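Q: Joint fold for the lines below.
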Amino acid sequence: MTATRSLAPLSTKLGRATAGLNLCHENAAELFEKRPNLDFIQIHPEHLIQEEAGEYRDQLDALRHHYKVILHGFGLSIGSSAPLDHDYLRLVRDLLTEHPEAVFSDHFSWSSLSKHHFHDLIPLIQSEETARYMVERVDEAQSVIGSPILLENISSYMRYRDSTMSEVEFINQITRRSGCFVLLDVNNFWANAMNFGDDPWSVISQIDVASVKGYHLAGCTKETMGSGTVYIDYHGEAVRDPVWNLYQRCLDYFGAWPTLIEWENHVPPLERTLQEVEHAAMLLRPFADAMSMGGGQ
Amino acid sequence: MRSPQIVRLQQQFLASLHSKPRAWLLDQILPAPGFSGSEEVLGIYLHRAMARTVDPLNDVFKSVRWALGDASFAGLLERFYADSFGEPLNAQALAVEFGAFIGSLDEEQMETLALTVSTSGSAAFSRTQALVAAAMLDWRTHWVSLIANHDREPHDSLHRKLKHRSSLWLRPRLDRCSRLCISGVDLECLYQLVNHDDGSHVIPLNSEGPRNYLVHADLQHQVVVRALTDTEDLLLRHCDGTHTLTSLEHEASFFGVSSPEVSEICHRLIDEGVITNLQDQLI
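A: Joint structure:
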């Protein structure tokens, strides 16, 4: 099945060669106080539900009107067998109206079943049956929101016996048939490749080029498990050098798209996080120059 | 359409959350080579589900954690999680459920839980009373921390209104999130001890019997817990929208409190962010 409803085009009001930072409880006070120059910040619509009032909510409201924003959800649970939360989707729709530069993204995963929240992004069985189901769910979500969404590849420490296709085949099937786009988390692909012994670039380069519309970068943590080491997507340290290298290859291959630095655990002083944003901005700069010379966005 | 494959997978995850991991799920999972097996990798997801669900309670119920000690509090969280019907996304909903869970413990369970609780002072209040007082203090301070200050009428405007002759017919109102309470525990002292991470972990009791307390957020959005004087308590208990300033002054006169004294208290409570409205509408 393919999506048939007409949707507003994905917003292009945020420049493509831009770099931003996620807003979280750990950095909100410092961001609120210092207001550094940033192309955009990323906010979670869930925080507007979870935090009805209070200091963080005040900071969030002030900052989302100070900066350009993108919206990134973690609670849509689009791959869940429970009904989609239309109240939540309407909130996203209203936020997209309020912030015309924003796009909304979530994940290729599930995280809740009815009232039960796992507070984690759990992988899906990668099969034709699941892909068909996901296309219908994406279609439903996009219809309520009124514009295409982006879905992010997740970090995963396991695969399923019943999966019949690779992660990238699964992603391509869904984007081709639903009209949604990919938020490419470079670190997640790298960590998965390390965990399963794959070559990260040979995985990433199979993604449909036209489907990529944004990047996420974060630091993962190396941990010792029962039979060796595993990279856990903890967002608690700086972006690793091989991930920066991979990001550069992505820019060359998929082009420049808004790039977000995520750092939510063991958050250092803002100055340090901003160095990561500046690193991304430096890699994006040649693309910005080329776009401005060519008159493009 | 429904996907039987997805339904089965998710039901198996859910079933594994509150009991032993299901055999079908363990067989379905192919772990990354660094893990010793599917049980280890599934354990990570299940542990994180529990830990991230209950994690906000560590911040909300700080006094209970301080009084019980970290290990005993972690055990209480695990019991709560095992007893829980769902895993709410919202920390406020979770805090309500946890408060209800503590309230649902019977006398024997509370006695057992409070075994590690120490109290100070000569008052004849029990350890379980002290523990419940700590839980209620936590809930109240969490509640007032959620006040949206920007909705308040500026306090200089309230002062101006209070000086006008027609103010006699205005009805002072407490901020809707403020909480008045009576306790045999010295809540003001307890709040300070917990927030300064005092190492004694001893809940202070009021040796001279129960006292009146106010829990509210000041104009800087900071939580304040303080004991009230009898006059303040009397006045604040009548700031419920049913008493005009005239009425408050009249009733205070029977306790030997003058009108200027009532007015002075009202001005002070406005400055403290306690009285946030002078109501003049019927409803």
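Q: Anything notable?
A: The two ends of chain B are 51 Å apart (CA to CA). The longest strand of chain B covers residues 211-217.
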